[in-house]
Amino acid sequence: MPGLGPASDEIGTRIQGTGTPGQKQLEGPQSPQLTIQKFAPDEIQVGKEATFQIKVINTGRIAAHGVEIRDSVPKGTRLVGTDPRALPDGEGGLVWSLGTMQPGDEASVEVRLMPEQEGEIGSVATVHFNAEASARTIATKPELVIQTSAPSQALIGDEIALTITVSNPGSGVATNVVLEEHVPPGLRHPAGEELEYEVGDLRPKESRQLELTLSADGAGVVTNLLRAHADASLKVEERLEIEVLAPQLDVALDGPKRRYLEREATYTLSVSNPGTAPARNVELVAELPAGFEFVSANNAGYYEPASRTVQWNLEELPVQEVGTVRLTAVPMEAGERVLRFTCTGEPGQSITGEQPILVEGIADVSFQVVDVDDPIERGGETTYEIKVVNQGSEAATNLQLVAMLPPGMQAIAAEGPARHAIDRNRVLFEGLPRLAPKADTTYRVRVQGLQPGDLRFSVQLLTDEMSAPVTKEESTRVYSDE
Hints:
- By secondary structure, the chain is mostly beta strands.
- It is built from one helix and 37 strands.
- It has four domains: 32-130, Immunoglobulins (Immunoglobulin-like); 145-245, Sandwich (Immunoglobulin-like), CATH 2.60.40.10; 250-360, Immunoglobulin-like, CATH 2.60.40; 365-479, Immunoglobulin-like (Sandwich), CATH 2.60.40.10.
- The chain has one helix at 4-12, and strands at 34-39, 50-58, 64-72, 77-83, 87-88, 93-101, 106-115, 126-130, 145-149, 153-155, 159-167, 174-182, 187-188, 194-202, 207-216, 220-230, 234-245, 250-254, 258-260, 265-272, 279-287, 292-297, 302-304, 309-317, 322-331, 335-346, 349-360, 365-371, 376-377, 381-390, 396-404, 409-415, 420-423, 426-435, 440-449, 453-462, 470-479.
- The chain has a six-stranded mixed β-sheet with strand order 19-27-26-21-24-23, with no helix packed on it. It has a six-stranded mixed β-sheet with strand order 29-37-36-31-34-33, with no helix packed on it. The protein has a five-stranded mixed β-sheet with strand order 10-17-16-12-14, with no helix packed on it.
- β33 and β34 form a beta hairpin.
């Protein structure tokens, strides 16, 4: 019927067992058998007491327990007495409790009645009893135990062999044993993260040994989890910590991030290993940006012109050690450049990085002033040549030049890369927009000496790249015979 299952389960959770096995003879089929017979006089008379008899015999081969005879007072009569004495059953009937009747036992009871009505008089007597049966078994208790052995440390990339022993130290058979492996992050198995193996049945005191190979995939301490379960709600788990050792490569690049053309730049690369295992076969490669020319590298650094790379090799870099190398190069082209590096090592280490470098040119303008004729006679002429040179790597812009004549000297003419104007004792040249790197230009000023003496001709030069003008003088001797 609906609801019987849950109700029985609920009752079962509240009842604590107290039963014990019975005697051996109660085991097997139990079939007690009782016969009952009721005797009455052939004829009774109203007003005259009559006796009815009930007889019960155990005709079976085993005892009957809790034997009871039940009868009711016949209609039309009145109860006078019983022998042995019966007890009322609460519903107008009579009950005799006979207890246990062994095979072959007989029991009889009598009922004395007073007939009060004519007619057919009688009732139905019944016999009730209990049959006992017993069964016994042995309750066993299977158990599960997992033991795992593996190295406490492993190098990243290596295989880790786990020896797993599943045993049943209990007293019963552990049935349908299944082993589950939950591969943690940091370890790897080709079949995935959740593995399962059907062990089957384990007899008491029986053990099975299994081998499981995992790969160390990530550095750090990992906890491997194994679970086993079987019938009868058996569950057990085993946790095992394994430290995966791994090198770790870090590279620090130190050097100028801004450099002028044709000025050597030295960069220091420091390779460190803050990991937990030595790094082997370490290779550091620095790639020079286009526009740089290799100058030198220390510690046996090898320059490969075809790839523009400098390579260093180190057989092993121990834990917490630092290796340092230096690279010197010259920027030959202006612009934004990038110095890149790659560092690799075993097992499975690789790191890349880069440093931007802004390469700029610099204008380096200088000039010389020379008088072509010196000395000159009063009233004579000489020419001053002003040679301007840009020795830098960047063009000089807005070059402005002014020639200043001392008293006793007069400007007659001038020429140069820009137009000019003569203003009494000054010659003003218009600004030259650009003087390319490594280029030069010449200005000339022709003058006349009007007074004898040591006359000093001066030139002032200024470009946009200069913070202040530069002035130079040239002395010319003007003489007179008078």
